[in-house]
């Protein structure tokens, strides 16, 4: 039984002014939380610009990736193993979640792929690709997840150029993909039918009174929406909305940088698309090369990752070129396809690399962000978890390690972070198909090692940043790291 439908509020001035909970951010995470709370009978507003500028969700390939995302560094740390456990739990919820969205919206399908094929090809480097492939297999064996080894030449759709051919391949039948546009249509439809209110506006700031949150102020007309609880699920922009919080608390919450990503929607020349996701292991500071079927002769080709202090809104030519050069690894005749759309999005990356989930140091204020590449996949699980916390119900206390007000979560030693940064940096050159005299790569590698070590030494002697923050050298990011570290002396 549905509540009476409520349409999105095109004019924020016409929105109700009082709610039980306000969710700031209308991407996959924010809408999922709003839906769970609305189903529970809460008066909920989800606030965000309808066009979702700069958001991660709109550019996501939306692989229901769990084991396919495993890397050697992930499973070596307790926090990484917890993230994997979260992914496994989220996977178990997606069948029911997708079906409920179909029933509560006008969509006829949410999933766009059946299973995932992981390939190990000749483009990567042993310390990343081969090690990642082995880590994926080991994680599936540990969790008793079924998989099947494939002969690469038997993968029907795959037809790379000879120099990029796969060496190994395996099929993971339990890992699928989501049609992102369908999901982002289904979620608001289900939410409003459950009684929720969509407010098409940008939140200017959070209101604090008497040491607790009382609502938000909208940009433009300055309208105040009141609520007992405010959840910030606005991705990279979430930390900026903490401006009213006491700096002694705010500075102890890791701020976020943007994992700017570019992906392509491509119509193949012959209309052929795979049934499954086809992907490499994660590589070179990114989620590897992957093709996701979208239907009607269209594939999603993704995705790049560049860590930046601020979100991006346009695609750099170099990022597009990297994707276009990657088609040789999947199907050589994709060069005859047509680019339908260039997607640009921004993954939220906390300064210590781990999600921000829970109370933000002020009564009634919560964070639900910083999920990097896991947000859309984990959205059903995190929506249930954050809803339980907001409603004061029992929840999974294992996730409390990701409470936002925290010292930096350290998953690597200084030497491990240094060598990981060097290995991935060199792999960027391989992925770009560089051509150098054979004595140049060792010289370049040693230069990067010296440079990264200098950055580590100058930044801090106690805390260790994630390796990608060494590679993407930005003064603004390094200044933010120093402020965060200083707050936890």
Polypeptide structure, described:
The chain is of the alpha+beta class. Among the domains are: 112-176 and 257-349, D-Amino Acid Oxidase, subunit A, domain 2 (D-Amino Acid Oxidase, Chain A, domain 2), CATH 3.30.9; 414-487. Helices cover 33% and strands 22% of the residues. It has 12 helices and 19 strands. It has helices at residues 28-39, 72-76, 78-103, 126-142, 180-193, 247-250, 317-326, 375-390, 414-431, 440-459, 468-471, 475-487, and strands at 18-24, 44-47, 111-113, 116-121, 148-150, 166-172, 177-178, 197-199, 203-209, 212-218, 224-232, 256-267, 277-279, 290-295, 298-302, 306-308, 338-350, 356-359, 365-369. The strands form 3 sheets. Strands 4, 5, 6, 12, 13, 14, 15, 16 and 17 form a 9-stranded mixed sheet that branches. Strands 1, 2, 8, 9, 10, 11, 18 and 19 form an 8-stranded mixed sheet that branches. The chain has a two-stranded antiparallel sheet with strand order 3-7. Strand 14 and strand 15 form a beta hairpin. Helix 1 packs parallel to helix 5 (180-193), helix 1 packs parallel to helix 8 and helix 9 (414-431) packs across helix 10. The chain starts with 17 loop residues before the first strand and ends with a helix. The model is unreliable at 1-7 (pLDDT under 50).
Compose a concise summary of this entry.
The protein is α+β, with helices and mostly antiparallel strands. It contains twelve helices and 19 strands.
